[in-house]
Amino acid sequence: MGHTRDDAAARRGSRADDGVELFDDSSGGPCQARPSAFLALGIEDAGAAADIHAAVHFLFPQPAHMPCSECGASVARDEADEHVCDSERLLDYRLFQLRGEIEGFDGEVAAYLETPLGRFEAWYAKRHRHARADAARRRRR
User: Fold this and answer.
1) How far does CA 109 lie from the centroid of its chain?
2) CA distances from 115 to 107, 118, 126, 129 (A)
3) Across the chain, how many H-helices and E-strands are there?
4) pTM higher than 0.90
5) What is the C-alpha radius of gyration for the chain, rounded to an integer number of angstroms?
6) In b/e form, how buried is each residue of 46-63, taking b as 16+ CB within 10 angstroms?
7) What is the C-alpha separation between 57 and 35, in angstroms, rounded?
8) Along the 141 residues of the chain, how does pLDDT read in single tens digits?
9) Which residues pair with 32 in a beta bridge?
């Protein structure tokens, strides 16, 4: 209501200064470039992987450094093959990745100990601990 554009025009995005036309495919995903956009960039076969790869590099320049997927260190692209992860940095990075789980651990244990099985386990552990302490005292006498 109140819009005078037709459906095709509504799906179409704006044209950038470089002639790349973007459109929304209404799938909830990101906008995509129309095949005519590749032709505007001088790419004749938009279906060829190498041409699309070249267009992506043309549209989105690649950074000189990328993070290592194992330790998170910033590594120059031309030195990625020679990179060796430092064990301390690797541990720090893995702990960083698990920080949400680590922060929530105490709450999860407390919630578990409130369940019937958790209460039984706590009772059994306390009973077992006291029994071992009593046995140790008897041995010392």
Assistant:
1) 26
2) 13, 5, 17, 21
3) 6, 5
4) no
5) 30
6) beeeebeeebeeeeeeee
7) 16
8) 444 445 444 444 444 444 444 444 455 445 455 555 545 555 555 455 565 666 666 677 788 899 998 999 999 988 888 999 999 999 999 999 999 999 999 999 999 999 999 999 999 999 999 888 888 888 887
9) 23
Which residue type does 83 have?
H
First-to-last CA distance in the chain?
A: 92
Residue 76 CA to residue 70 CA, distance in Å, equals: 15
For the chain, give the number of residues. Answer: 141
Q: Which two tokens stand for residue 110?
A: 């407390």
As beta bridge partners, residue 67 has 74
The two tokens of residue 131 are 């029994």
